[in-house]
Amino acid sequence: xxxxxxxxxxxxxxxxxxxxxxxxxxxxxxxxxxxxxxxxxxxxxxxxxxxxxxxxxxxxxxxxxxxxxxxxxxxxxxxxxxxxxxxxxxxxxxxxxxxxxxxxxxxxxxxxxxxxxxxxxxxxxxxxxxxxxxxxxxxxxxxxxxxxxxxxxxxxxxxxxxxxxxxxxxxxxxxxxxxxxxxxxxxxxxxxxxxxxxxxxxxxxxxxxxxxxxxxxxxxxxxxxxxxxxxxxxxxxxxxxxxxxxxxxxxxxxxxxxxxxxxxxxxxxxxxxxxxxxxxxxxxxxxxxxxxxxxxxxxxxxxxxxxxxxxxxxxxxxxxxxxxxxxxxxxxxxxxxxxxxxxxxxxxxxxxxxxxxxxxxxxxxxxxxxxxxxxxxxxxxxxxxxxxxxxxxxxxxxxxxxxxxxxxxxxxxxxxxxxxxxxxxxxxxxxxxxxxxxxxxxxxxx
Length: 446
Prior knowledge:
Elements: H1 2-18, E1 24-25, E2 34-37, H2 58-65, H3 68-75, H4 84-94, H5 96-101, E3 104-107, H6 108-117, E4 122-123, H7 124-127, H8 142-147, E5 158-159, E6 164-167, H9 170-176, E7 182-184, H10 190-196, E8 208-213, E9 217-223, H11 230-235, E10 238-241, E11 247-253, H12 257-268, H13 275-284, H14 305-315, H15 324-350, E12 356-360, H16 367-377, E13 381-383, H17 388-400, H18 407-415, E14 421-423, H19 429-442
Parallel strand pairs: 1-7, 4-5, 8-12, 12-13
Antiparallel strand pairs: 2-3, 6-7, 8-9, 9-11, 10-11, 13-14
Helix pairs in contact: 10-17, 12-15, 13-15, 15-16, 15-19, 17-18
């Protein structure tokens, strides 16, 4: 796997730069994807990427076999066709012999930890993205797995973020000149690490929200217990594991994938803009003219994103964006309006007014989207750090090494870092009017 080769290259460079000062290493990645190992620790094929079309239609088939409400009660997870549960059902349908031969399922960061030190466990936050974990027992949803005919025996022991998994493999340590380096499981889902790296002040209330902004926008609140009400299921929010026993009550939003794929299409047509140039073109385009639902299935992996946006606007009888600036502005404004909608849901579900929104991750560099978010939500937006995921991963490892004591202390370290800025909201009226149109386009659930 190229990822593993690049990890070794990075560790080799770190060894040359820092030598014996390196105390530990830990991996975080995206969720849901996994590797199957047999009892001889051999990979059973290459892992699939979650956007693969093999799961098309499987979620609907699964909900005909086991009621949607029963699946939600057992897992607390939003329904998305690429969740690990549906990926495993695709394996059962297409290559059942792989499940028969499998001895262990490891999610991508767990597989990296196995490659580093030989551990065969699942870290809690990454396991919680699978739709195979029970949010009340915090163990595998064994009964649900049985109902689907999936082998519970392949699911590993679950460990908490901060667990020390063992020393780096001897041969690898010798190859990379890394002596006495421990492998520590951070919050191994990248969003969980990003939320650990949010520079907020813990007040005991869910009075702040986060957006981990990148290819996806993960918008949510940190809560103490999983929320399993019918309303949460209706809104298709999710409960994913967090640090120190918390849960992340959040919504997956299509995110900057919309803009990335527009850029890809523009590039293919010979119009090669960087993201700064696209933002400048969007700033000059007419405001709040065309709106899309970012989470419409047609935007998941279309062959031509600009055409998909235009088709949506045409079908919903809106002005069709034609220029690069109009298309990108449509994407940015629609994301901001989606954030406004989800903000309302989070306030409803937590019973708290959210006073501030933290935007972290690579997408926090998008100044136009940051301002649109503040304007649409009418809340101050605190941006940064850009590398919140790396920061969250790092501070959990530092705490595991005994140098930090609490989540509050960890976030204080992040808060003192560079790159934190605040955007104040502007005129509310245009966004209030646009939100009504947005609700119509999305099929309002409020």
